Amino acid sequence: MITLIVRRVGELLLLLLGISFLVFGSMYIAPGDPASMIGGPTATEADLENIRENLGLNDPFLVQYGRYLGNAVQGDFGYSYQTKQSVADAIAVRFPNTLKLAIASMVVAVVIGLVAGLISALRHNSWLDFTSTTFALAGISIPNFWLGALLILVFAVNLQWLPVGGLSEPFYTAEGFKQLILPAITLGTGSAAMIARMTRSSMLEVVRADYVRTARAKGVKETKVIWVHTLKNAMIPVITVIGLNFGFLLGGTIITEKVFAINGVGRLMIDAIAMRDFPLVQGSVLLVATLFVVVNLIVDIVYTYVDPRIKYE
Amino acid sequence: ACGGESSSAPSQTNEGGTTEAGGGEIEEFVYASTSDVAGLSPILTNDSVSANVQEHVYETLFERDTDTGELIPSLAESYENPDELTWIFKIREDVVFHDGTPLNAESVKYTFDKLRDPATAAPRASLLEPVDEITVEDEFTVKITTKYPYGPFLASLAHSNAAIVSPTADQAQDLMSNPVGSGPFKFVSYTPGDQVVLEAFEDYRDGAPDIKKLVFKVVPEISTAISMLQTGEVDFIDNLPSEQIARIESIQNVDIEKKDGTSVFYLAFNQSRPENQDENFRKAVAAAVDRDAFVGKLNGLGLRSDSVLGPMVFGYNESKNAAGQAYDPELAKQLVEENGYGDRTISLLTANRDNFVLMAEIAQAQLTEAGFNVKIETMEWATFLDTARAGQFDITFLSWANLTQDGSEMFYPNLHTDNIGSSNRAQYSNAEFDELVDASRTSVDQEERLNYLDQANGLLLEQNDVVVMYHGVVTGAMNSEYTNLILEPNGKWTLKDVTRK
Amino acid sequence: MVLAQTTKEQQQEAKTPLLKLHNVKKYFPIKGGLLKRVQGHVKAVESVSFELMEGESLGVVGESGCGKSTLGRTILGLEEITDGQVYYRDQEIQNLKRHEKKKFVKEMQMIFQDPYASLNPRQRVGDALVEVFSMHTNLSAKEKRDAVVDLLKEVGLKEEHFDRYPHEFSGGQRQRIGIARAIALNPSFIICDEAVSALDVSVQAQVLKLLKTIQEKYNLSYLFISHDLGVVRYFCDRVLVMYLGNSVELAKVEELFETPLHPYTQALLSAIPRPSVHANVKRVRLQGDLPNPANPPSGCPFHTRCPIAQDVCVQSKPEWQEYQPEHFAACHFAGKSILEGADV
Amino acid sequence: MSTTFSVETPQVRTKKKDRFVVSTMKRLLKNKLAVVGLIIIAIQVIMALTAPWITSYDPATQQLTKSELPVMSEGHILGTDNYGRDVWTRIVYGAQISLVVAITAVTLGLLGGVVLGMLAGYYKKWDAVIMRFVDLLFAFPGILLAMLIIAILGTSLINVAIAISIWSIPTCARIVRGSVLSIKEKEYIMAMKSMGASDLRIMVKHILPNALAPIIVFATMRMATAILSTAALSYLGLGAQPPTPEWGAMIAQGQDYMWTSPHLTVIPGIAIMLTVFAFNVVGDGLRDALDPNMDLN
Amino acid sequence: MKETLLEVNNLVTEFRTKEGPVQAVRDVTFSVRKGETLCIVGESGCGKSITSLSVIGLLPENGRIANGEVRYKGEAIHNLSAEKKRLMRGSEISMIFQEPMTALNPVLTVGYQLREPLMIHHGMSKQQATTRGIELLNQVGIPYPEKRMNQYPHELSGGMRQRVMIAIALAGDPGLLIADEPTTALDVTIQAQILDLINELKDRLDMGVMFITHDMGVVAEVADRVMVMYAGQKIEEGPVEEIFDRPKHPYTRGLLGSVPNVDDPTFELHPIPGTLPSLTEQIQGCRFHPRCLFAMDRCRQQVPPEDDLGNGHYVSCWLTREEAVSDGVGTNDEGTATRSEDAPLKVAQR
Ligand SMILES: Nc1ncnc2c1ncn2[C@@H]1O[C@H](COP(=O)(O)OP(=O)(O)OP(=O)(O)O)[C@@H](O)[C@H]1O
Ligand SMILES: Nc1ncnc2c1ncn2[C@@H]1O[C@H](COP(=O)(O)OP(=O)(O)OP(=O)(O)O)[C@@H](O)[C@H]1O
Ligand SMILES: [Mg+2]
Ligand SMILES: [Mg+2]
């Protein structure tokens, strides 16, 4: 286990190095000058030159990248070009919101996904299965920017049951909880559908396994056959899907954050890209990638508990 | 916030409900903007969102009269102009910064020097580019000399980026996240990406505003913001999109304020390309684009005039309202036919924000109608700025908010030869025009300036160098519980006088 | 039917070994740890030597995992040899260049165990056979097709089977196709890796007969890998018994079955269920399982399960010796009956 | 003479047609949802191909005086948008765009993914390097990757297709690698090696066709994702150039009129949803038809 | 003679398939007595497993007993309620399967899986079940049973797993044990161990055993009586000595003639030509006739009835009614069928 973690951390560092290079490189070759984004349309060439010099943008690529890496190694991820705020601070303010949103969406996704998937599998080929399969597929098919707008229209504006946007209140207050509902549904629907699908097919497969027949041959009750002899085995691939989806959710909050006026990392990222705020882009991409890897590491560790066959030396 | 009367707003604030009799303090007032402030220091920022907040925290030496547009003293009490190059300002003596520091001549010098210092890399350093030297004459008198006579100098000083900051605060802390000014509101907190919170400055020289807590909230989707306005989560939004005006009008608890503005949206040609230097070509384009129809699409949020300098801008002359090539599809078709303009593909560059796409789509359709072969290229803002600056387009749409409301401030950056390669994205170069603009900038005689500007304006229209699509209308929509919003033609607004109805 | 036959005696006299293995070893590295470094080896084949004559069938028997398949693959060069030499007609053939290898590819072929996995399910069987000719000959399309049809007939299939997919055949028929593919290029040597194990007895018998017929016709040599001693006895001339990667005994088939020298061979023979109610073989049951080939026991690899093991077996590895003429074994107590040491 | 062995196969005689395709299709057609999906896709393809004939309008022609007409207006069955363009026409032409972009994206992505996955699965020594690179793409937030690519290449549908294709590579590579790893161990591959077949021949002729099933399913599902992503990027203003009638862009544009002319968002929204749904159900059906036990993740 | 445990009469098991209903077991009748091992042999796909699954009531979803009855200790069990069937499974009739790798749940400990039947059928507490479980593991010859209780299946070797399976099957003290090819996946030396174990347990516990295999060697080793199946039908049944020494059905002879004899160097193979027909195939008359070297016209038209040859030996073949069987066919000492003329492959000239 320790070896696994150590190795993954090692791989993560390599990965981050790769990603940072990729991001840095792509921002470098992307058209659009950070200086003119700071200077605005009125800035004169002299203003811009001044800003560029100030930000070190006139140095050669490798010098800039080297400087970035050097600082990053020391835990300094630079300062936003726009706000001059430290990248760490800028992210620290937004990350809790993104995390909150991602976790809430995941809860929605897992609860709906598992329930729908199990119902489908256990009532295989019934109308319940058909309905839930159809809904699952529809869930994956809805563009979430559209879903979000529709939800706002119905539940916030017309019915006024839930607030339109924001995520400022703590989640344990009634207000904060209400704020989470619509965005969590918007973001979680796709994942719910994927989890439902995976649960269904995995259950269907496991139900046919020899050891389930063994359990029946022993005279085990049908309910126990399902909950003890099937579910845990069926969950193994589902856990992968959950892990991957959680990773994707963390990086996929962009549109939801935009629609629901949530101050999160996703929005920070697109704004930063639009403003050519390199340090912010770097910082947030690295964060999301790290989280992705960490989540998958956790999934791998969870595996060892669910599936005793898996051993990492 | 919701007073005693019933409100349709589902409790947007948890402290809502506490009220007191009388004129009514406003416990919390929320404004929503679609993007976050870049920062809270006037010296280091140059964007309208930041300016909105800064306007409430800081003050400038001069300001514009909201109705007449005239420059009137604000922090300055009076000024003298002993010669063309010298400006002597008398500063009000009763002003203190929020941190208790008195505002005096030293503060002004400090602020301006900092703004000018190349090491600061201030984005708007060019505001004070003509300044040669700043000297403190006495506690409340400051003398500024310019390198050359500079006509729009006072307008520059009214610019929100020329607001006076507290030198003690600037040395002690980062004004970007922790601003200290002398305005009606005092900084409380800033959550990047989310909101800036201000509170009433009790020691404000004109008396503390009614709004006790003022929140600038970021709501990136304007539709969401409107929904929030509808549900009462937000009290005020500005820059209403023309597409949604009908919807906002239909909302019961919201009042819309409109005012003619200084901004101008226009079609520009890339004049560095010989094809575009063809006068007939520009004429054909101008004749093909039906600006009236377009302005009709704006649902009253646009002002139709050919004049490059709009009615609210210094330098405007009514006679230029129809001085450009009028819409004449037949003429356009004829010109296209005669000159074979349809043979080349014209790239229509546009940024993918605001009304630019709308203009581009309509213009493209109309130009196509006239026989041109136009391809729209939309770009995100950053790329657009670079691409336009480098002159990689045939036609584009540009806009100018003109915060200073001065014609020179429109012509010089946008169309003067000096600024090709930077803000002169049309790559326009015309010696005669340059001369007129220079004259308007260096003269301090306002009558004379008016004349120069009008001539320059005429020059542009005559040759269809600029095809004005519309002049902006400043808008705001506020919860109808409140009143006394001050909207300025340049898009700025002030909430310090807002009261409960 | 005129078959091109040479008698076995004639071949034996020629005394040119077709294939010769000398101390062939094949280890698979086990990777692990933080940097996935090699931490040990699975000693799949640990020093195997033998000679195979032309027209001869050599059986290789042993329990699952003892390295039979690996041995076969190593001979064909499908696995890189770890140590030792393989000679084919006196030429060393491991480490040959690609183009040099081509010659031997035609000479040496393989028939696989799983009739369901040994044919590409997305390829018509005819095309699969044509492909063999495409790779190694310059025949025209027509010639290739004719050759394939001949082949199909040769193994008891029909021309109409040319355009069918493998899933349309029964296990036995697929195995025939596998055989057709193996003999397409006129090889002299074929490795049959459990070629009949997966088949039903009735079909197994059909295929065994076919293999014999072909052998006689083309004077083929077989390396016949199997765990079914009955089949080996029926089919092979000599037998090599393997245990945990080691060769433990090699002898003519009758001799091995009549007087097995190695206790493992004895145990193996006594464990076979006889399809007869009259067989009265004294049973000795081996205790325990095959040890892990990654961590083989010291000394004689069989000592952990050997009923007659002594201290010496734990300490030193017995040598591979010729105890009788052409009868090799590796045991400190070769020839001793396990019945003596076992509690039957 | 001696008795001949009967080696008659009980199975039906084979037609020259590829039985694999036929039988898969048969099984697919048993799946009701998949049939619905196929019909939707067929309609879309027909719409895309016959666009100029099934509508008399041009998708870009504006009639400013007839803007925002509601559904079922005279001459405009689905109404008009804010520029007075016929919504039905734009939906029809939008089908073209969605399909072309998605097909391009998926094809490019498959190409990259199959090559990488094949090499990684087949050659042990390349595996680590390729898979690390794939991990890198994988850990990169999808939309962000697309945004960066578009920031570099510029806003256009082609670049959207490229961005989405790059985004498809890691998943595809993993799927292919997984199949290759298992197929590689099959005896028929061993058989080809023992016949002296070259690596290229083995990969292309023997591994690829057998790894095809999951690839086909992936491609179908990816079509769905690609359509959604194209729409999402257009929604963010990074995709289609106006006046291209891309569905996502139509939603984005229509959203401003959501309260006054909801059909401007609802119609393209439904169009996207139906199409994506169709590809998803067909993909799902294909998976079941090809191999019920296949695991796409 | 011991009491009859299991009686299966005219069992027909049907599957719903896309091609319509197919019969996998066609009118099969047999019985198993206490302390007796009945071996069912036949080629792959002939319906051995389905017969046994019909008995224990674990048919796949699309399968059903279409006709006939299954009686256990005189009581009909094929039409019991699902709940009654469940309680019967494991306590009256137990089953072990071919693949010890997949028949045990990989995510549950050996202990859990072993305790389960004990707790279900004997109402034991977990504690008691653990103690009894260890005893059972001991009984099936597993070393260190305490340790094994906490291990997972993948930590055991194939042979050990099969022993665990047997222990689980024995846990409910069943009267009848069904073993479906329990040694096919094992090596000969391990197979021998398991066969010994089953034999020993059968004697000790006085169980009836239904042993399914296709290996004639295994049959000879464990069987008391043998039932030979072909294409869903029973074609011959009798005591093991009868079947090996006096096989009557050409198919049985063919089976015996297909297995090389280890002890006989001169043995010649006599394969049965052709392959098993598919379930859907319509065959008139005797289902074996297309592969039968002695098929007569009658065989092609009429289904042969079952003949009682005495001694508990039954066969369904027209040949037994013909006196002239010996024409061209003899029986050697071993009882394997031989033919005067071999049936070699037709090998074309290349
Ligand atoms: N590619 C490989 N990597 C690592 N170990 C391997 C590899 N191939 C085989 N082995 C190991 O080598 C040993 C011998 O395997 P091999 O397949 O040769 O046995 P076998 O005698 O053919 O067994 P079986 O009768 O089951 O086919 C086994 O322990 C196996 O796990
Ligand atoms: N669920 C099912 N649906 C349809 N047909 C089935 C089903 N299960 C089994 N069969 C068919 O029933 C027949 C008998 O199968 P069974 O498993 O009893 O064979 P078997 O004699 O046990 O063979 P093996 O030796 O391979 O285990 C086979 O032809 C098989 O294809
Ligand atoms: Mg093997
Ligand atoms: Mg079976």
TrEMBL record, chain A:
<dbReference type="Pfam" id="PF19300">
    <property type="entry name" value="BPD_transp_1_N"/>
</dbReference>
<feature type="transmembrane region" description="Helical">
    <location>
        <begin position="12"/>
        <end position="30"/>
    </location>
</feature>
<keyword id="KW-1003">Cell membrane</keyword>
<dbReference type="InterPro" id="IPR035906">
    <property type="entry name" value="MetI-like_sf"/>
</dbReference>
<feature type="transmembrane region" description="Helical">
    <location>
        <begin position="177"/>
        <end position="196"/>
    </location>
</feature>
<keyword id="KW-0406">Ion transport</keyword>
<dbReference type="InterPro" id="IPR000515">
    <property type="entry name" value="MetI-like"/>
</dbReference>
<keyword id="KW-0472">Membrane</keyword>
<feature type="transmembrane region" description="Helical">
    <location>
        <begin position="101"/>
        <end position="122"/>
    </location>
</feature>
<feature type="transmembrane region" description="Helical">
    <location>
        <begin position="134"/>
        <end position="157"/>
    </location>
</feature>
<feature type="transmembrane region" description="Helical">
    <location>
        <begin position="285"/>
        <end position="306"/>
    </location>
</feature>
<comment type="similarity">
    <text>Belongs to the binding-protein-dependent transport system permease family. OppBC subfamily.</text>
</comment>
<keyword id="KW-0533">Nickel</keyword>
<comment type="subunit">
    <text>The complex is composed of two ATP-binding proteins (NikD and NikE), two transmembrane proteins (NikB and NikC) and a solute-binding protein (NikA).</text>
</comment>
<feature type="transmembrane region" description="Helical">
    <location>
        <begin position="234"/>
        <end position="255"/>
    </location>
</feature>
<keyword id="KW-1133">Transmembrane helix</keyword>
<feature type="domain" description="ABC transmembrane type-1">
    <location>
        <begin position="95"/>
        <end position="303"/>
    </location>
</feature>
<protein>
    <recommendedName>
        <fullName>Nickel import system permease protein NikB</fullName>
    </recommendedName>
</protein>
<dbReference type="Pfam" id="PF00528">
    <property type="entry name" value="BPD_transp_1"/>
</dbReference>
<keyword id="KW-0812">Transmembrane</keyword>
<dbReference type="InterPro" id="IPR045621">
    <property type="entry name" value="BPD_transp_1_N"/>
</dbReference>
<keyword id="KW-0813">Transport</keyword>
<dbReference type="InterPro" id="IPR050045">
    <property type="entry name" value="Opp2B"/>
</dbReference>
<keyword id="KW-0921">Nickel transport</keyword>
